Structures are given as C-alpha cells and as structure tokens.
Amino acid sequence: MRSLNYVGPFPGPITGQTVMTLHIHDRLIREAPEGVSVIAYDIVRGDTGSKPKDMLIKAGRALGTISGLVFGGRGRNCYISVDANRGMVNTVAYAAAARLGGARRIVLHHHTRAHVDRALPLMRMLAKTAGPRAVHLCICPSMAANLAQRYPAINHTTSMSNVISLDTDRPETRSALRASHPEVWRLGHMSRMNMAKGLGRAVETLETLLEAGIPARLSLAGSFSSQADRDFAESAAERLGPALELVGPIFGEEKTAWFRELDIFLFPSLYRNETQGIVNLEALAVGTPVLAYGGHCIADDLAGLTDWCLPPDADYPAEALAFISRVKASEAGLTPLRAQAGERFHGLVANANGAFGQLVDFCFGETE
Questions:
Q1: 264-267 and 185-190: which strand pairing?
Q2: Tens of pLDDT along 11-35?
Q3: What is the pTM of this model?
Q4: How far apart are CA 62 and CA 258, in angstroms?
Q5: C-beta neighbour count of 306 within 10 angstroms
Q6: Domain 3-159, what fold?
C-alpha cells in the first residue's frame, strides 16, 4: 500500500501558506487513489508563542515529525511545506529525515520569494539536502525559473498557482448591470495594510484622481500592521471625508460583495517578499480589473492584460490616473476590462487544476 507523508501547517495563524497547504492536504485526501493513505504531520497547531513552554511544544512537534519521516517513511512519498527565514532550519531537517528514511519522492512547496530574489545559505542547504530527485513546487513559472537559476543543485521545478485554494464556484459577475462609465470611480485596496504593501500609494492615488477632477472613492479593507499605519489611514480619512472609507477586515460573502462593487482594485505593493497577492485573484474572480506592481507571480497572473501590471519604478498614482483616463475616454469603458478579468481568472484556475493533477500523479504514481 502506497502512502504519502504530508508535512505542513494546519490550524496555526491564517496565512497564505496555511490556507494553501490545508487546501492541498484536503484535496489530496479526496483524490488519492484507492488504497493510498495520507499521513499528516502538523508543524503548527496554533502554538505560536515564545514562552519556554511553547518552545518546548514546538521542539517536540518538530522531533516527532523528524522521527516519523526517518522511521516511517521508507517507500513513501513526502510533501513538505517550505518555511521561510530561520524556520527553514526545520524544513532542512524534515527534508534530510525524509531522504534518510528512504522516501520515494519529495515535494518541497515554496510560498515566499525571500529565498528566490537572493541566494540564502539555508536554501542552498535545503536544495542539496533534498537531493537531485526532489521537486520544488512554486507559485508561478517565473518563480520556479528564478529558483532553479539561483540554486544549481535543484534539478526539478514546477508551479501551481494559489488560485487553486480559492472558492472558484463564483456567482456571475453580472457585468451588464455595472456601469461602463461610472459617475464616481470606486477604488479598493485590501491587504495587511502598511506602507510597503501600498497603503500610502493607494491614498495618494485617490488624491491624484480628485485633484485631476475625476470623482472617486477609495475603500480600504483589512487590518493594519501597526498603530502608525492605522493613524495614517485615520488621518487621511479625516482629511478626505466621504471619499475615503475604512471598512476593516471582511470575510466570506461580504468580502466577495466588496470586490464586486469596485471599479478598479489597487495593489501598489512593493513589499520585499510579495509573491502573488491572493487579493488580486479574488478581484479577478468577480470581474474586477486590477492595477498592480508586477513582482514575480503578479506579472504572470496579469500577463496579457494591457497596462494592468506596472514596473516597480513606475509612479503608481500617475499611472493609475492615466489608466483610468484612457478607460473613461474609450467608448466601451470598463465593460471589456471586466470580461478580461473573468476570463483571466478562469484561465488561471484551469492551469492550476492541471498542475494539481500532475502533483497527484507525482505523489501517488509509481516510480520509474
């Protein structure tokens, strides 16, 4: 009987990595061939404190995972969610344990570009430890190509978009009922809001439009990274009045409705480790155009959508003004852009489902 050892965070802090690995775990279980079991090792379980007791719990969990991979891994395949920064020490240990234990195949799933944009010693160690037969799974093709170029010890890479973790059974966007030339442009920005993620540039974009005589409103959704970021947003809201709305964190149907009401989703993030921006995908899912800085997978996601993706040295507010001015001047307005957003989303979903099928074959298929 074939088995898969699955190493990833489960309940833990709700991050993109946690959501993605939970989705993959659940879906692998559903799609595993008959007679194949999935054995999960939870490396988080929500214990994220720094007290001595918490550290001992984490250490015990890591040792338990290593022991399971060494003594219960022979002939099994192994999926490992790659941690970042100092957490990669544990990932190296898991990869070493899986290889020592005789794993047939090892999949290493990368969720951050921290070790893609620059060569890091721990990542070099991971590439060598996992061995030449390991497959490094990235979020997009450009990330996979950059990783392979950065670390010569990596022989096999592939990619699968985070779009696969979204609810892709979306209701119709009903674009025909949305104004092609809105009287007041509804802009939105959502993230873990801070300056690196684009909070300041989003507010500046609103101000630029208003100064140019274009009626606009900006809705900021999500939590703030710091009190300073909150103070900045509240000060801007006081200054700009009803043109700037602070809605806080939103989820589920409320979040979907928020995206659907927007004319343009702004994502001016220059965050150093930005990979994909799941919020961009959520906007595309309901037919809302996106204007974003293109870093790694964002550029891949918005490929073919003219002027939606900006180089990192572009003046974002000025480019946003030019973009909206062009749309205003066109006869069709926003209507074709909304159609393009929906089409791009469904294309990304189709590609991701194909990549997941390859992952299933790799994890459960027979070796050569």
A1: parallel
A2: 544 455 566 777 888 888 887 777 7
A3: 0.87
A4: 40
A5: 10
A6: Rossmann fold (3.40.50)
